[in-house]
Each structure stands twice: as structure tokens, then as C-alpha cells.
Specification:
The protein contains four helices and eight strands. It is an alpha/beta fold. The longest helix has 16 residues, at 15-30.
Length: 160
């Protein structure tokens, strides 16, 4: 299991920001199509895949099911569901590429798919062709489906 202390920063993403970033990703992908369909890496890639499918008018969506995260720790990746072709003409969508471990598993399953993520960290960035926002390796991205509303201390108080 990965060291949960490796995350020194938190980057909360709202539903509105995620939607804007997914639309920006769709803008980058539209010129590279047309696409046969989308493979969403579950579970994080499901929401971005839905938004991108809407923006690119793609109706064929399948999943590649991989399990690797538990809150702030990344454990052993395991394939829960694969697909049957090499991915040619398909988009492979995930919310984030972190270390690249999950990305490499998915990439091996569909080596000819175009891999796109909304967010990318330096270690995993070489595994994707298209992404929108890069964040530092020591940042935990807090997605809206994992968050609730609560008081947050000012940054300066967290540094001291």
C-alpha cells in the first residue's frame, strides 16, 4: 500500500469546475475524432466519460474496471473487468493519472485507444496523450463525489 503521508496538499474540485474541465478536454478531443466509443476506467472515469460522451455525441460507452485506491492510499491494482478489442478508434477516459499504475494496466488492455484524463500528475503524465490540468505529485485531488461541505482552515494556519 502506498504511503498516505505522500500527499501534502489538497486540491478540492467542485462539480462546476469538473464540468468545465471535462468540456475543455472534449474541445481538445473533438478535432482528433471521430471516435467509435469511450472506455471509462471505473469508477473515477465514469463522470468525465459521461460529460465527454455528451459533448462529442458518443453513444457507445463501455467500462474497464480497475480497483486501486482506498481514500488517500493507492494499493495493489487489480482488473475487475476487461474489454475484448485493442481500442483502435476509441477514447480511454479517466479522471486522473497519478503514478500511472492503473493507466498502464488499462493501456495494456487497449493499446490503440487514445488515453485522455482530466487531471495528470508528473509520474503518470507520460502514459496519457491528452489531459487538461497538471497538479504536483504530492497533491490529493478531492473530487466532488468524495467531498462534503465543512469549514476549512486558512492555508497559512496549515503551514505553521
Amino acid at each position: 500500500m502506498a504511503d498516505p503521508n505522500r500527499y501534502n496538499k489538497m486540491f478540492p474540485v467542485s462539480w462546476e469546475q469538473l464540468h468545465r474541465d471535462c468540456r475543455a478536454l472534449a474541445w481538445r478531443l473533438v478535432e482528433q475524432g471521430p471516435w467509435k466509443g469511450i472506455y471509462a476506467i471505473t469508477r473515477g472515469g465514469l463522470v468525465p466519460a459521461a460529460i465527454i460522451a455528451r459533448e462529442l455525441e458518443i453513444r457507445l460507452i463501455d467500462t474497464i474496471c480497475v480497483s486501486s485506491y482506498d481514500w488517500q492510499s493507492q494499493g495493489q491494482s487489480s482488473i475487475l473487468k476487461s474489454v475484448e478489442n485493442d481500442g483502435e478508434g476509441w477514447l480511454l477516459i479517466d479522471d486522473l493519472v497519478d503514478t500511472g499504475r492503473t493507466a498502464k494496466l488499462a493501456r495494456d488492455m487497449v493499446p490503440k485507444a487514445h488515453f485522455a484524463t482530466v487531471y495528470a500528475k508528473p509520474e503518470g503524465r507520460p502514459t496519457v496523450e491528452t489531459y487538461i490540468t497538471e497538479v504536483s505529485q504530492d497533491t490529493w485531488i478531492l473530487f466532488p463525489w468524495d467531498a462534503g461541505h465543512q469549514f476549512v482552515q486558512p492555508i497559512v494556519q496549515n503551514v505553521e
